[in-house]
Every structure is written in structure tokens, then in C-alpha cells.
Amino acid sequence: MSLYPDLKEGTVVVDGIDVRFYDSQRGNGEPPVVLLHGMEGSAEKDFWALFPMLAFTRRVITFDFGLPKDGQDLTLEHCVAQAQAVIEKLAPGSPVALVGYSFGAVVAEATAARKPDLVASLVLIAGWMKTDRHQLVRNGIWRELAQSGSSALSDFNLYSSYSAHYLCARTERDFQEIVEKSRRSSISPVVIKLSDNIDIGAEVQTISAPTLVVGCIHDQIVDVSHSRELFGAIRDSRYVEIEAGHAVVQERPAELFMLIDNFVAAPHATSPGDVYATSTP
Amino acid sequence: MMNSQNVLADNEQLQKEAERVNVAIIGSGFSGTGLAIQLKRSGEESFVVLEREHSLGGTWRDNHYPGAACDVQSHLYSYSFKPKPEWSRVYARQPEILEYLRDCATSEGVDRHMRFDSEVLGAAWIEESNEWLISTANGSYLARVLVTASGHLSDPKYPNIPGIDDFKGAKFHSARWDHDTSLEGKRVGVIGTGASAIQIIPEVAKVAGKLTVFQRSAPYVVPRMDREYSTAEKNMFARLPHTAEKLRRDLFWAGEARFPQRRGIESFISRVEGLALDHLADQIKDPDLRAKLTPDYAIGCKRVLISNEYYPTYLRENVELETQGIERITENAVVMKDGSKHDLDALIVSTGFETSDLPISHRIHGTDGLLLADHWARGEQAYACSTVNGFPNLFIMNGPNSGLGAGSIIFVIESQIDYILGALDYLHQNGYTRMEVTQDAEMDFAAMIDRNAQGTVWLEGGCKSWYVDERNGRLSTIWPDFMSRFRDSNGVFRPEAYEVRSLAEQKV
Ligand SMILES: Cc1cc2nc3c(=O)[nH]c(=O)nc-3n(C[C@H](O)[C@H](O)[C@H](O)COP(=O)(O)OP(=O)(O)OC[C@H]3O[C@@H](n4cnc5c(N)ncnc54)[C@H](O)[C@@H]3O)c2cc1C
Asked: Do B80 and A52 touch (CB under 8 A)?
């Protein structure tokens, strides 16, 4: 994988599942950043921009969630165990800056609640804690299209992932690239199934790590209200909104990078309850 | 170069005649005008803007060559504190930008503070009174604080080609375009293929009888996504200002996300390189011509240029691209290294500006009379890209490490304005009259820049560019990090790096 020069790659086996990890290795003495990717699949797809930006100053680790073999169900416990195994293998004994995006944010919440010793700070991007009706409708359409083998599936993903404004402002060339990317990527039905049934609100309230919650104003997959509630649920959290769709990692990677980089460098530089203002460059 | 020490020799006489102000700003481009506006808005009335020319505008007053336009989108390449909803197009042309600057100055009332035809000939720090004595072509000034806003691309640089002075035909630099010389039907040569040249070349080709372009190194060129804004859009920006602010943020963050291109990240580089090389391949089919137009260094090492008209110009009958390298220039021709010769009626020099050795630094004398240029003999550096040890109460705008590889200089300028206002406020609040950055702070800052510069394309991309100081190999003109980091690091005044005192303390 070409995330970063001199990337170390390897595999850990968790519950009999292969989990592929990627490690930029060199750091600055601060806790390494561990990035947890979203529903659509792979660390590289979500973090091709964010990973190198962060790796200029700090050690960055990420991995691809492994799925159970033979169509068995994926559980949140599987995912938390994978995050724990990667952290304990690559950064044993020292807590990390855990950054979860979308479905990865749900895993990050559960990890921070259940394994507080692993987490020095927490960033939750476009995450949620209890699946709502809006998400179920979306998952239903997705299932319908996937089962019927419809070619509209990738367009549906693209349509719901990106903000309208972002898509319309692309050049023809950039838009075609987004379309191609969307055709190549896929979500596993077991991930959709797990995402139907997330309900960890009680656990989330126990999170003690300093947390930054990032909501996306134009998110059509995980409505921004979920992030606002996470901000309400986590005691030591601050909040910021980005003008992007769910695909914030593609639409505004540099803004996301600056927020993460500044926060993990000094999680307590801002106070619990702070809401970041949108600055005009 | 004028000897500034002589200019200041009769110090006492100058001081007697001098007009006293709190702040003197040298230059009336985007930097000087922007600072003046924000100073005035902060309530300061005692300041002057000293400008050597007859009117304001800097870059946009001087670069009126055919085709002149900005290459950062106008909604970003304008002050955030003076938004203009009516920008006519994505990339405004020179007259519209100059008009914008003039409107800003008059609507904010800073035009009254501008002193034209007042070239600063020398400035000297007066320790006894904690002031700068400034001598201009039109009177002298005493100022508590001096700001150089004299530009980084304002003094034309001419190539060192044997015989260039012998050329008898019309000859001028692109930043000093001679509109009285008609190029209609003439044999015209253009030396250079940088940002200005690629705007000029398509325009000159339309009128010249024969155009020869002398290229030393081919630039990367990507499509220019330019268009006019509709009336509906302009009214929308005016009626709903947050839509224009959102556009500005979209443009800013898109530029910010390009930075990993400069840090050797393959996935970023291959995208922009593909964009540029496909653009070339789309527009130029002839393999020989395409080869000549293909750059031989890593993308981003020099500015990535944007144009849709540049490449097709070489498909015209009357245009020739010459890449052999110039041997010398005669009264009426350019002679190439291979002995071939191009007879010319007019020669347009578009070879950039004096950047590594800032001309204003040869006119500023700090404590003990030290000349800024001598202090910088081994290369330019400044703490927070703004202040220099040995030069109290002096701020430099758009100086060392303040350029950008991709992005709007206005972002840098506004950060520096905030820094200067913060410092002025600090002096005022505490009754201090003298502040000087410590040598340690300046050296640490320079070391930080050097560390960040390692591994960037500017040092490792295999090209010769104005970003690197030839004297020491340091990256001295460009900011080697995200733009946001410029603002974090250099946009907020922090007193810790300074030694400060008041005049009263000094006398005891
Ligand atoms: C053709 C061209 C296109 C550009 N396009 C872009 C773009 O699209 N985006 C971008 O970000 N940047 C662009 N730039 C860079 C541009 O220089 C800056 O964006 C910006 O205009 C610099 O403003 P400034 O006020 O710092 O300097 P300047 O505009 O150069 O102004 C300096 C002023 O100081 C005056 N001065 C100098 N010395 C003295 C003295 N001794 N005494 C008195 N007055 C003095 C000069 O006459 C001048 O008026 C472009 C540059 C050029 C040349």
C-alpha cells in the first residue's frame, strides 16, 4: 500500500480473523494516532489523504477491519478486539490518540468506554451511538439494491456520501474519478447488518478520555444530529462542525487534519463543552 | 544600489524636518494597503504609507501586460475583511484587481495616508528616541514602528546574458510593459516561461508577425477552470454573504489539501502530475513538440501554472519554441548555443524578480548602523517570518519564508497584519517603546524552518527555482508547511520571544 514512504505492514490474527495493519513508525514522542476506517471498507480508501498529512509530524497507525469467514456475523466485540490487538501489538503499554470515522467512530467509542487505559484522547468523526430510522431506511435501500445486483448501488453510495455542493464543484475529470472510485468500492452486508443495530448510548456516557466530536453539516448517511448528541453524551468533549457530507475525509481532509493534529497535540488546550467557531481564511 | 548610509548622513537635519508618526509602512500593494486599513479600523490615525510610484497597487499596478490576471481564485485572492461579491469571473484580470485595491483604499479612507513619489532611500534606527528615521525622495519621517511592505516580486530581474544591453530593438521586462511599442506584425522574442510569460505568450502571438519563445526549463501547466460569474451568483453572494464565505473556505481548504504534493507523497503527486501531463497530451499531439514542453523536474519544484491557451499557442504558424539555450544577444538578434540565430524587432524579458536578496534590505540600518542586507549576507531569515534581531520595532511583510507553493498570498498577508496589530497593541498596553526579537528566538525559528524544509520538493525536486537562496541552499522564500500552520505560528503575537522596554527605563 502506498499510504506513506517506509510504511510498515503486517497482520495480526484476532478471533481467527486476519487483520492487516499499517504503521508509519516514526513519531515525535506524542501518543501515536490510530485511525479506524468507516463502513465502506478500507483504511486506504478513507485515509489516503489524512494518513500522510498526520504522518509528517506524528506516528500514525491504521488497519483494515477483518470480517469473519463463512458469512458469520460481525459484532462490535470483534471490532473492538481488533483495535485492541493492533494497539497492543504496535504501541504496547502507552495509550494512543484514537480517531474513528463513521463506523470506525462507533468502534472507537466502544473501545474508549471498555478499554479506557488504551486511549489518551479520542476523536469521533461523523459517528453515532444509536442507529435511527433515517439510517435504517438508507440501509434498507442499500440492501435492496445490493441483493438485486442493481448498477444503481454505486451511484446511490456516491449520492449519499458526498455533499451536493462538493460534487457539483468538481471538474469533469475529478468527478469521473469519484465515480470510478465509488464503482470499485463495496460495503459488506455484515457491516450493514451490524450498523442496523448500534445502541451503545449508556456506554458512551462513561467515556472519560478527552474527546473531540466532529460533525458534518451535509451528512446524508449519519445526520449531524448524531454528532451533536455525542457531544452531549461525553463529559470531556468539545465540538466542531465541518461543511461537508459524510465523505468528509475526501471533501475536507486538510481541515480534518488540522483539527485532529491540533487536538491530539494538546487535548486539554480547549475546555469540555467548547464549540469551535468556523474561521474564515 | 543607492548608498543608504549617505542618504542618512545628515541625520540631525533630517530629524528636524521629519514628520513624526506612530507607524510608517513602505509600499502600497496588497500588504501595505491591507495593513493600513486594519490599522485605521483599530483606531490608529498616526501612520503613513510611503510609496515610490505615483499611485497605489504594487504588483497589480505594475503588471499590466496583455493577459495579466491572478492565478488564485478572486474570492480567495482578496481581503477576507473586504469581500467583493461582484467579482466578474473566477480569476479576475489585472484591471479589476487594481480597481478593487483602489476601492478598498478609498472606501476605508486610507488613501489620505498614502505618500506617493516617496521612495524610501534609507531608514535608520535611532536608539536615543526609540524611533526609525526614514528618508524618502520626498521628505523624511520619524516613526515608532517601521513596516516593510515593499513586495517580494516587485523589482524586475534581468537575465545575465552577454550582449543583452546591446540589443537595439524595443526591449522591456514584463512587469514594465511598454504599451507605446506596437508589436503588430513584428518579430518578437519572449525570454522565460514562468507565470507571467505563459499569460503573455498567447496574447503576443495574436498580434506578432513572428513570436519566438526562449525556454530554459518547461513548466508544468494544468487546466484553468475559469468562467464568468452569472448575475444570479453575484447577487447571491451579495445578498447571502455566507455563500461567498463558504466558497472562500472551499477554495482555501482545497489548496491546503495540495500540500502533501510538496512533501513527496506519491498518491498526491501522481494525481497532479497526471493532470498536467494529460493536459499537455490533450493539447499537443506532435511528439517532438510535446517532448520539448515536458518538464524534466519533479512537479511542484517550481510553481504549477494554469492555462488553457498556453500550449495551443505553439500550434500557430507564427510561433516557435526555442530550447537550445541562449549564447548571447546582438544588436538585432538572439544567438543560440548551437549557433543558430533569431532576428528580432522586440525582446520581452519575463525572467522574474529579485527575491533572495530583497532590495529594501539594502536600505535599512538597525542598531549600531548594521545594514539588514549585511545581516542577511548568508541568507534571509526572520522570527515568525516578521522580525529580526538587531532591528527593533521593524516588521517585514512578505519577506523571508512567506511565499506559498500553492495558495493565496492574501492569507499570509492577513496573518502578518494580525501579528503586527497584536504587537502594536502589546506595546501600547504596556507603555513600551522598544521591542526586539532575541537572537535565540530568531535562530530557533530558522532551525525549525530548515527542519520542515527537509524532504520537500523545493529542495529535492531537481530544479533551479527562486524559492531557494543560491548563497546557502536554504529554502528562504517559501513557507514549507501547511498554510494554516503559518497562521498558527506567525499570525498571533507572542511577547516571549522579545526583549521589551520603555524609553523611561532606557534612560536610567
Ligand atoms: C504577475 C503576478 C501575478 C501574481 N498573481 C498572484 C496570485 O494569483 N496569487 C497570489 O497569491 N500571488 C500572486 N502574485 C504574487 C504577488 O506579488 C502577491 O500576491 C502580492 O500582490 C504582493 O503584495 P505586496 O503588497 O506584498 O507587494 P507588492 O504588490 O509588490 O507591493 C510593493 C510596493 O512597494 C513599493 N516599494 C518597493 N520598494 C519601495 C521603496 N524603497 N520605497 C517606497 N515604495 C517601495 C512598490 O512600488 C510596490 O508598490 C503575483 C505576482 C505577480 C508579479
From this structure: no
